[in-house]
Amino acid sequence: MLELFPARQTDRSEVGRPKDAPRIGVPSADEILARRRNLLLDMPRPRPVRLRGTGRYAPWAFYGLLVVYVVITFRILLPVLRNDEALTSTQTWLILIPLVGVAAFTWAIFHGRSGERNLLTNGAIAVAQVNRQFIDSDPPCAYIDYEFCDSRGHIWKHRTMDRFGGYSQGMTALVFYDVDHPERQVADCSTQYYEIVLPGEK
């Protein structure tokens, strides 16, 4: 991924430069995002993607939690099963509710990861207009409201997380969506599990 906030490089040209003057040779966030947008628009499908850290570890962490829960539950139930004692209704619910909850959450993460990959690799691209960018203070995180027109002329509006933190009102962002089901969409700045490998990156 392009570095959205490049490290400051101090050289002789900056010595004695006023604090408010722009740094020479350092691209702004707008320029970096525009360059990334142009690269993505020119990429053919299927686009190469790679897993982020959260996409690589989070699903397996919850899957491991599910396995541990099943093992612990089985060890607790084993004496009851050996003595042919029937579980009470309360015991049954206390076992099933957490089990179903962890299993559903694990499935949702794996399913979301697969859906995001499909959108990034083969989804259609739309250029969305950012109508608003704001910071949610609890917890601190940037969000944007955007809208775009799909291939059928329908206008879609959505709010999503701005993980780049570089968007502002009036800028454009890229959205990947399913042509047949445009409600399935993900903005480039809000991907959780995968990221597109840009030309020149490994």
Structural overview:
This protein has 202 residues and is α+β, with helices and mostly antiparallel strands. It has two domains: 38-44 and 125-196; 54-118. Helix content is 39%, strand content 23%. It contains three helices and seven strands; from the N terminus they run H-E-H-H-E-E-E-E-E-E. The chain has helices at 29-42, 53-82, 89-122; strands at residues 49-51, 124-137, 140-149, 155-161, 172-177, 185-187, 194-196. Helix 2 (53-82) runs antiparallel to helix 3 (89-122). The chain starts with 28 loop residues before the first helix and ends in a 6-residue tail after the last strand. The model is unreliable at 5-17 (pLDDT under 50).
Mean pLDDT: 78
Radius of gyration (CA) equals 24 Å
Which secondary-structure class do the elements indicate?
alpha+beta
Order of helices and strands: HEHHEEEEEE
Total strand segments: 7
Unreliable parts: 5-17
Gross morphology is elongated
Q: Give the oligomeric state of the chains in this entry, treating copies of one chain as homo and distinct chains as hetero.
A: single chain
Keywords:
alpha+beta, two-stranded antiparallel sheet, five-stranded antiparallel sheet, 202 residues, 3 helices, 23% strand, 2 domains
What does the secondary structure layout of this molecule look like, with pairings?
Blueprint: H1 29-42, E1 49-51, H2 53-82, H3 89-122, E2 124-137, E3 140-149, E4 155-161, E5 172-177, E6 185-187, E7 194-196
Antiparallel strand pairs: 1-7, 2-3, 2-5, 3-4, 5-6
Helix pairs in contact: 2-3
